Amino acid sequence: MTGIASLTLEVSDVAAAEAFYAKAFDLGDTVNFRAADTPTTGFRGFTMSLVVSQPSTVDSLIGSALDGGATALKPVEKSFWGYGGVVQAPDGAIWKVATSSKKDKGPATRQVDEVVLLLGVADVKASKQFYVELGLAVKRSFGGKYVEFESPASQIKLALYGRRALAKDAGVSPDGSGSHRIVLHSDAGQFTDPDGFGWETAAV
To answer: According to the lineage, what is the superkingdom (predicted)?
Structure first.
């Protein structure tokens, strides 16, 4: 298993989701959509992070997401680690846009340097072991709090975070139940991880 090749968000209105994401983030075929009405309430147990190079890019992406109908969960602001904000897309997925830089270093762009999927898991160590046994290599790990896996530069990065800690970082309650409304695609075939996240074979 080399990592996540792409993601599919399960949404109630595919056309509306495609229009929103094209305007908000323009991620191409990194994130796809399919129709689903599986029940879900509250926090879905994951967030997506877009890592960018400078504050003006954060402002641009967050601004276009809000213009497209997203809801602000955490306002864009400076912090000790950098600059960023969190929004919830109309389909319910939570997106964080952030940079480690506190000052612009060049002209404003909309370039996304990294896409990171953070799974909020019940037991970080157990989930880490599950993915290591599937063949993922650990890039960095902080005990039972956070794990990030190696991945090809062209693919989506996978990281694990405790569910409550991830919800706090996103600015929402950790309570939630039902479908995660996300499917991860890789070269490892079809399976479900310990926290109920479903994986499917990536299209060639």
So the answer is: Bacteria
Per-residue model confidence as pLDDT tens digits over 10-36: 999 999 999 999 999 999 889 999 999
DSSP letter at 190 equals S
Helix (H/G/I), strand (E/B), else coil: 27: coil
Pairing of β 157-162 and β 46-51:
unpaired
Q: Which of 144, 157, 204, 185 is CA-nearest to residue 34?
A: 185
* Domain 9-122+156-183, CATH class in plain words: alpha beta
Residue 186 neighbours by CB distance under 10 Å: 24
The burial class, CB within 10 Å (0-12 / 13-18 / 19+), for 125 is middle
d(CA 98, CA 120): 19
pTM for the whole structure = 0.95
